[in-house]
Design brief:
Belongs to the glucosamine/galactosamine-6-phosphate isomerase family. NagB subfamily. The protein is α/β, with parallel strands linked by helices. Helix content is about 30%, strand content about 20%. It is built from seven helices and ten strands. It has helices at about 10-25, 40-50, 80-85, 110-120, 155-160, 180-185, 200-210, and strands at about 1-5, 30-35, 60-65, 65-70, 100, 125-130, 150-155, 175-180, 190-195, 225-230. The longest helix is centred in the first third of the chain and has 18 residues, at about 10-25. Bound molecules: fructose -6-phosphate (F6R). Fructose -6-phosphate binds near residues 35, 36, 66 and 137.
């Protein structure tokens, strides 16, 4: 695991964007795995900036997002499909047909998502955020390390953390569709981003803790190509 420690979230986003652009420029039909949430926003802003400067072309890029709230339509402003369209896709030359977000409404057979990823050659580069409780995607503590995409229950701590984006905590969906830990581990390369003091404990477990289902992120210790990019605050509990 390679650890890159930077000063603040802006630097984390910039560093991550350079890695993503470098990979796209090496393989223009790359398959990217993408995350939502606050952490990757500086990354997406930099991707848009570099696109506007002509430094990257998304015409052949394919994307698969990690997760979606159950019950939210793609047009719902809190849905992760809406988030991706607003924060990234509508600002770059990606073909929307090449972008995939798990379906929050038709959740009959979520593991079809893994088949679709495989049919597209698998994820070349997976971007991850990190939950306060160590979740990656919406794989909460005690998730089976062999899990594939499935319907998952969100923990109280995740519902509380995500309520900042909703009018009230009661509006936060209690379930989501998430790529599984195995789905994530199948990616050829993984870049995890974490910023802020509230991620310090999970970062400490990821980097210094033992492999444990109590901290789902620790499964990344078993992957051979992981870069963790963190700011000073997220690094503050490292020994
Ligand atoms: C989002 C996702 C989650 C977030 C995590 C951190 O697609 O899969 O694991 O990455 O909850 O969220 P933020 O960045 O908002 O702190």
């Amino acid at each position: 695991m390679k650890i890159i420690r930077l000063k603040n979230e802006e630097q984390v986003g910039l560093e991550a964007s350079k890695i993503v652009i470098n990979e796209i420029n090496k393989k223009n039909n790359i398959v990217l795995g993408l995350a939502t949430g606050s952490t990757p926003i500086p990354l997406y802003n930099n991707l848009i900036k570099f696109y506007n400067e002509g430094k990257v072309n998304f015409a052949s890029v394919k994307t698969f997002n990690l997760d979606e709230y159950k019950g939210l339509k793609p047009t719902h402003i809190q849905s992760y499909r809406y988030f991706m369209n607003e924060k990234l896709f509508k600002h770059i030359n990606i073909d929307l047909n090449n972008t995939h977000v798990p379906n929050g409404i038709d959740v009959e057979n979520p593991s079809k998502y893994d088949l679709l990823i495989n049919e597209n050659g698998g994820i070349d580069l997976q971007i991850l955020g990190l939950g306060v409780n160590g979740h990656i995607g919406f794989n909460e503590p005690n998730t089976d390390f062999n899990s594939l995409t499935s319907e998952v229950n969100l923990t109280e701590s995740t519902i509380k953390a995500n309520s900042r984006l909703f009018a009230s905590i009661d509006e936060v969906p209690k379930k989501a569709i998430s790529m599984g830990l195995k789905s994530i581990m199948n990616a050829k390369k993984i870049v995890l981003l974490a910023t802020g003091k509230n991620k310090a404990k999970a970062i400490q477990q990821l980097i210094e803790g033992k492999l444990s289902v109590d901290w789902p992120c620790t499964i990344l210790q078993e992957h051979s190509n992981v870069i963790v990019i963190i700011d000073e605050q997220a690094a503050s509990e490292l020994g």
